């Protein structure tokens, strides 16, 4: 049978998907044990037991300086920044993207501006944000918004712009005006695309969050990773990175599930 | 015979390319006009002009004596070959869309007793096109024929002065197409519709229409084929004593 026609079933997919991950883990364990055989206090490739101990102490021990349990404080701070940034960017993408895509005069007026902002590397704006907004939470949230909103806006606007002309003509023959087409035709059809844009923006959003936290912060997952890097504390960094990956996967899965539940017509399934 | 729709000296040009030239036409109330012609002869352009999706470069179009608005409006219903129904709405919601837009300018949604009334009207319309059992399906769950039935119901609930059909049955298989012919003929009679249908199926054009228009270029310049546009080269009234095809004279 040709490879293009081999469709693994659910069990096979799980097994196949686990193979490379397991291989990586095994390679890491080999390397880690090899290093520890030479030097029992090696910090570069910590053993699972070392990582578990370090993580457990981060998760349970109250920090004397801040009076908080750092792991949960970091997680809460980062998720709050990320959540705020993602919410603002999503709202902007929906409102701006919708009118930009559906109303040609608005597109002509603001399209070039959005395109212009979208091509600026957001990190290059970080100094401006710090100068303008200070080193507090606002600048970090603003970096995430500036980093992902233009791309999301362009994606939603592009999607709304490619709605078939026939469909818009049909809506008008049914008595719909611009406003009604916006809220009853363009908006609902933009929603699944908005969620997809948000899912794709999760990666960049994490990048901007960690960058902002690494540069100026006193709490947060990115801050912690860059802080303990000074002590080569790989036993903290690796679990933190794994935790970030887990959070990102959970968000992506949640958004995908939401889209399938809320907009079954967009997923080509037998609802 | 009173003309419902009149086109006078209508031209459509894109740059130096002429698509339609000097189209003069009167469509009577209650007629079923089939428009045929070779590919690229401007059949769809003609329909879009009547629909208001396309503005002619010169000439005038009147509907019931009034100049036609330069955009689509609820006085003209349309069914395209594709993309005629809203994929995010169920059958019932699709059919109610027109009523909701007309009666609720701000929210485009109806509530309470107004909603009940609109639902009842939509269900009655859906029953007349044979979709009474599929109220809560999404278009993607239906066959092409059912989607076109829905598109027709959706358009008819607005009671348009003219129903425009752009190759509505072109993508359907022959059995379904025959069913649709019976349906559209019945709706045309029951609702007293005026229909303009573009089709590439000559047989369909003659079996359904009371009048067949053939659009084609009157002249062809091999060095500049784009400089001559299409117009109605044949205009046949059917259902008369002598339906012998005769070329329309140059003066129109």
TrEMBL record, chain A:
Keywords: Cell membrane, Membrane, Transmembrane, Transmembrane helix, Transport. GO terms for biological process: cellular response to sulfur starvation; transmembrane transport. It holds the Pfam family BPD_transp_1. GO terms for cellular component: plasma membrane. SUPFAM superfamilies: MetI-like (SSF161098). Belongs to the binding-protein-dependent transport system permease family. This is NitT/TauT family transport system permease protein. It comes from Novosphingobium taihuense.
Automatic annotation (TrEMBL), chain B:
GO terms for molecular function: ATP binding; ATP hydrolysis activity. It holds the Pfam family ABC_tran. It comes from the Bacteria. The keyword Transport applies. Residues 5-242 form the ABC transporter domain. Keywords: ATP-binding, Nucleotide-binding, Transport. This is NitT/TauT family transport system ATP-binding protein. It comes from Novosphingobium taihuense. The lineage of its organism: Bacteria, Pseudomonadati, Pseudomonadota, Alphaproteobacteria, Sphingomonadales.
């Amino acid at each position: 049978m040709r490879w293009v026609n081999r469709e693994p079933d659910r069990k096979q997919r799980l097994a196949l998907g686990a193979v490379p991950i397991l291989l990586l883990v095994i390679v890491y364990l080999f390397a880690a044990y090899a290093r520890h055989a030479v030097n029992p206090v090696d910090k570069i490739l910590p053993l699972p037991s070392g990582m578990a101990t370090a993580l457990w102490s981060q998760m349970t021990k109250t920090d004397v300086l801040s009076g908080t349990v750092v792991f949960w404080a970091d997680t809460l701070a980062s998720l709050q920044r990320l959540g705020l940034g993602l919410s603002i960017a999503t709202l902007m993408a929906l409102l701006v993207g919708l009118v930009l895509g559906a109303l040609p005069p608005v597109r002509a007026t603001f399209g070039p501006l959005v395109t212009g902002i979208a091509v600026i590397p957001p990190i290059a704006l970080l100094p401006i944000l710090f100068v303008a907004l200070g080193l507090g939470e606002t600048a970090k949230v603003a970096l995430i918004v500036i980093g992902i909103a233009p791309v999301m806006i362009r994606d939603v606007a592009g999607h709304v712009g490619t709605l078939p002309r026939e469909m818009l003509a049909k809506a008008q023959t049914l008595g719909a005006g611009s406003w009604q087409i916006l809220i009853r035709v363009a908006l609902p059809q933009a929603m699944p695309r908005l969620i997809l844009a948000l899912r794709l923006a999760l990666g960049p959003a994490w990048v901007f969050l960690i960058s902002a936290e690494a540069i100026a912060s006193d709490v947060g997952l990115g801050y912690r990773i860059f802080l303990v890097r000074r002590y080569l504390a790989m036993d903290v960094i690796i679990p933190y990175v794994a935790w970030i990956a887990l959070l990102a996967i959970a968000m992506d899965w949640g958004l995908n599930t939401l889209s399938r539940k809320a907009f079954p017509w967009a997923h080509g399934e037998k609802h | 015979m009173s003309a419902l729709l009149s086109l006078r000296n209508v031209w459509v040009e894109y740059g130096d390319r002429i698509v339609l030239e000097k189209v003069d036409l009167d469509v009577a109330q209650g007629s079923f006009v089939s428009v045929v012609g070779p590919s690229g002869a401007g059949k769809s352009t003609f329909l879009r002009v009547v629909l208001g999706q396309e503005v002619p470069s010169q000439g005038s179009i009147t509907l019931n004596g009034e100049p036609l608005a330069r955009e689509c409006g609820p006085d003209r219903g349309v069914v395209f070959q594709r993309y005629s129904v809203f994929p995010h709405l169920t059958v019932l919601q699709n059919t109610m869309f027109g009523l909701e837009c007309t009666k609720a300018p701000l929210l485009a949604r109806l509530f309470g007793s107004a909603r009940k009334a609109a639902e009842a009207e939509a269900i009655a319309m859906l029953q007349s096109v044979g979709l009474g059992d599929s109220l809560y399906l999404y278009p993607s769950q239906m066959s092409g024929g059912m989607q076109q039935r829905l598109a027709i119901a959706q358009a008819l609930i607005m009671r348009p002065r003219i129903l425009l059909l752009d190759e509505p049955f072109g993508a359907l298989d022959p059995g379904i197409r025959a069913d649709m012919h019976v349906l559209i003929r019945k709706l045309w009679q029951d609702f007293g519709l005026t229909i303009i249908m573009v089709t590439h199926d000559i047989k369909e054009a003659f079996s359904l229409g009371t009048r067949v228009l053939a659009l084609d270029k009157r002249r062809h310049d091999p060095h500049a084929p784009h400089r001559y546009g299409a117009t109605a080269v044949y205009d046949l009234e059917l259902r008369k004593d002598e339906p012998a095809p005769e070329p329309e004279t140059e003066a129109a």
